[in-house]
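Hi R.,

As promised on Friday, here is the backbone we talked about, encoded as structure tokens. Could you run it through your design pipeline when you get a chance and send me back a sequence?
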């Protein structure tokens, strides 16, 4: 059955791969972008809506546009995020709070807006894009790791709040992924990262998208409040 899917930060990378996966499955797909829209050939078949998730008014406007064009959002993929890496002693308050405002508070804002209509329909799927560093930590990414760790508490709280309305809320936690950001690293750095992954490589965006689409499916209707690693074993703990 075709559903209305909204992917925030869907102009490239993991977000775009998610949007394409849902589109290929026959869903009606909208994506948000912050600065410039993706090229027409990249976003063919998708509704592209500008939205800065740090601005509640822009979030509300974006949802209203999607609702008018496609219908109420039934599946939300909260992917919009930024980085501002740096060692803690050199990290400004703005760099710390700015990343949390986008990655964590932004996720809260879009989820809060989405569940309003999901509650009325008594069905919904919310998937947050987390990160392995939210569990393991990473030197130089205290802000990013904190924002991704916070998404777990947010998701599990929402999962408990809305379970009675048949709304599931989960987190997909990727490890290193072959995106433009990863490609910008030097060869030595990319090689070292891949070597640290037990499977010996980084993920493709499509592999992450497949996990997201599964959690949004009917088959995953009894799964809520989980963190699903897609990290090649990088985040494995002792248990």
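Update: got your reply. Pasting your designed sequence below so it's all in one thread:
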């Amino acid at each position: 059955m075709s559903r209305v899917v909204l992917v925030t930060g869907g102009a490239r990378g993991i977000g775009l791969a998610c949007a394409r996966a849902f589109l290929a499955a026959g869903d009606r797909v909208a994506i948000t972008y912050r600065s410039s829209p993706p090229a027409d050939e990249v976003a063919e078949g998708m509704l592209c809506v500008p939205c800065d998730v740090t601005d509640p008014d822009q979030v509300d406007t974006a949802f209203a546009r999607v609702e008018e064009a496609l219908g109420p959002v039934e599946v939300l993929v909260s992917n919009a995020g930024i980085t501002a890496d740096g060692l803690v002693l050199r990290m400004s308050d703005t760099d710390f709070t700015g990343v949390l405002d986008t990655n964590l508070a932004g996720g809260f804002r879009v989820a809060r807006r989405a569940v309003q209509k999901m509650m009325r329909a008594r069905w919904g799927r919310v998937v947050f894009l987390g990160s392995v560093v939210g569990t393991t930590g990473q030197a130089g990414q205290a802000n990013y790791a904190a924002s991704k760790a916070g998404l777990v508490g947010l998701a599990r709280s929402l999962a408990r709040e809305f379970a009675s309305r048949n709304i599931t809320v989960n987190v997909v936690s990727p490890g290193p992924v072959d995106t433009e950001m990863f490609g910008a690293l030097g060869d030595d750095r990319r090689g070292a990262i891949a070597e640290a992954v037990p499977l010996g490589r980084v993920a493709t965006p499509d592999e992450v998208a497949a996990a997201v689409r599964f959690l949004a499916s009917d088959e995953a209707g009894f799964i809520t409040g989980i963190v699903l690693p897609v990290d090649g074993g990088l985040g494995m703990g002792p248990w």
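One thing I noticed while checking it: Residues 93-121 form the longest helix (29 residues).

Thanks again,
M.
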